[in-house]
């Protein structure tokens, strides 16, 4: 007898309500409802309109009668302030809002970056929860006074469904306030930054049943009292759980490809060294206490922003067309460093790319196809650079790169990744986050016994495409040029 699970997968660009039917060792998934997320500009700030997201989630759930459980996952670092009995205190900020631009300097007066890294193992980025909370304390002390606690985005919606207020461990670990070794909030960091400990909620392990959909919501939706499960509330945590590797060896890495590119390996314990700190690697917690040792780098966000700019005059321009236009320019010479800070912020991205090329004495790409190819080729070079650092820091030799997430549909980028990393690429599933979310629900409810069984089911249920490195004499020349750009 099959079981029906629902994954609510919230991304920076879109959200989906996905129905998963699991039975006879197979997972079938169906997108029930999709909606735009994206930021809202209000009073000169970038915010998330979470109440609109909540309306969309309810619309999707109303189309999924007779479900056994539901779980929400999301991006990390952002959060919602709550008071008990109230749905929220204020609209949450978007991680790209400019308010944290000088956050490093304000933090440095209280605590060193090395001390933060040694305690949490998390890469220093100005968008982290640590920086955002500190900015709230300095700029909006009234929010602390009026709030009882905060919840990260995925956990916030699990709570609105009726689950108890808590943060699941994979999302807690992205805040840069959670000690990945001790598996608890870092009281030393919280104290040194002057943050009140009372606003930090309970942290629960992946796969925790939080309760059932509450009576009023069941009545409103015409739904059943499905279980609410905190699977991996962080979307990358869920995606990595669904990496279809059934190898017992450690010769594979993963790349969660989407708005962000998260490239790394799965470890049994954190890797927190001076070198990993200097290289900007992070230690996030995955299912069953595993460690996602990875580098969080900009991904298809650059292409998304280009498309947003071009869409003003080309409203029908989709990603398939962008890839088609780029395919004839993948051997062009211009490159950018996607990890240059200018590409992390919104704005006229095509102009930023052209300006970067001029500044580095390169012929700037002009057409839509040339610019898109420049970005994809540059991302593949960055993957090669980061993968080499992963091998050095973990003393592993990587033979296979698993690319999962929405970006795994981009065959042009997949082939470029194989070419420039020199590794076999296995692409898929594109719905890795949803698969991980759904099957972790099955595991939490006793339908699956282990993470390895989960990954076997993904391999059996989803289409995985292989890309092999093409013999190209110019690859090393391009990589050398890419490295020189950093200097």
Structure write-up:
The protein has helices at residues 50-62, 103-108, 113-120, 129-139, 141-146, 153-161, 169-172, 187-192, 215-221, 235-241, 274-278, 301-310, 319-326, 349-359, 368-394, 411-421, 432-444, 451-461, 475-486, and strands spanning 3-10, 14-23, 26-36, 40-42, 45-47, 69-73, 79-82, 149-152, 166-168, 178-179, 184-185, 202-204, 208-212, 227-230, 252-257, 260-267, 281-285, 291-298, 400-404, 424-427, 465-467. With 487 residues, the chain is of the alpha/beta class. Strands 17-18-16-15-19-20-21 form a seven-stranded mixed beta sheet, with helices on both faces. Strands 3-2-1-6-14-13 form a six-stranded mixed beta sheet, with helices on both faces. Strands 4-5 form a two-stranded antiparallel ribbon. Helix 10 (235-241) packs across helix 17 (432-444) and helix 13 packs across helix 15 (368-394). The longest helix has 27 residues, at 368-394.
Please provide a brief summary of the model:
By secondary structure, the chain is α/β, with parallel strands linked by helices.
SSE layout and pairings?
Layout: E1 3-10, E2 14-23, E3 26-36, E4 40-42, E5 45-47, H1 50-62, E6 69-73, E7 79-82, H2 103-108, H3 113-120, H4 129-139, H5 141-146, E8 149-152, H6 153-161, E9 166-168, H7 169-172, E10 178-179, E11 184-185, H8 187-192, E12 202-204, E13 208-212, H9 215-221, E14 227-230, H10 235-241, E15 252-257, E16 260-267, H11 274-278, E17 281-285, E18 291-298, H12 301-310, H13 319-326, H14 349-359, H15 368-394, E19 400-404, H16 411-421, E20 424-427, H17 432-444, H18 451-461, E21 465-467, H19 475-486
Parallel strand pairs: 1-6, 6-14, 9-12, 15-19, 19-20
Antiparallel strand pairs: 1-2, 2-3, 4-5, 7-8, 10-11, 13-14, 15-16, 16-18, 17-18, 20-21
Helix pairs in contact: 10-17, 12-15, 13-15, 15-16, 15-19
